[in-house]
């Protein structure tokens, strides 16, 4: 794998992942963010521009790290990359989100939507990695 393919794959997957974040983090169950307005820094929908920008940048970092993991461990093909995505999902975001929800007042559907958003983001990265690295 050359750096050109890696960079293109990381940019494509980061761009697509930003749409999954928008759908699962901003659209799905959007009204549930207001269930506990006191947990949000300024309330849902107020002054979020900087936070959204950082979230998008971190999405690019996530997908680039996934591409790097696929390259480092010679994960090729759709099945292998999707299996890696599922294992990463079960290993990191699911326990983190559930644990946070045990201690922070979050509506359960927000936890579900964010968990599914992570699965979608990693799934997109896996599909793009398989396409570019196979």
Provide an overview of this structure:
By secondary structure, the protein is mainly alpha-helical. It has one domain. The chain is elongated, with a radius of gyration of 16 Å. The longest helix has 26 residues, at 108-133. It starts with a helix and ends with a helix. It has helices at 3-27, 49-72, 78-91, 93-103, 108-133.
Per DSSP E runs of 2 or more residues, the count of β-strands stands at: 0
The coarse overall form would be elongated
Oligomeric grouping of the chains: single chain
Task: Kindly name the structural category.
Answer: mainly alpha
Strand content range: under 5%
Number of structural units classed as domains = 1
Compute the separation of the termini in Å. 9 Å
Low-confidence stretches: none
Q: How much helical structure, as a percent, in the residues?
A: over 70%
Element-by-element helix/strand order: HHHHH
Nearest-angstrom radius of gyration? 16 Å
Query: How many helical stretches?
Result: 5
Biggest sheet features: none
Mean pLDDT across all amino acids:
90
């Amino acid at each position: 794998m050359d750096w050109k393919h890696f960079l293109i794959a990381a940019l494509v997957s980061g761009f697509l992942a930003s749409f999954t974040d928008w759908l699962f983090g901003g659209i799905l169950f959007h009204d549930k963010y207001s269930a506990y307005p006191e947990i949000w820094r300024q309330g849902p929908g107020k002054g979020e521009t900087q936070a959204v920008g950082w979230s998008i940048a971190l999405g690019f970092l996530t997908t680039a790290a996934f591409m790097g993991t696929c390259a480092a461990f010679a994960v090729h093909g759709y099945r292998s990359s999707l299996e890696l995505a599922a294992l990463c999902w079960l290993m990191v975001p699911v326990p983190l989100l559930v644990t946070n929800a045990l201690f922070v007042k979050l509506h359960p559907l927000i936890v579900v939507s964010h968990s599914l958003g992570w699965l979608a983001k990693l799934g997109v990265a896996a599909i793009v990695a398989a396409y570019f690295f196979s």
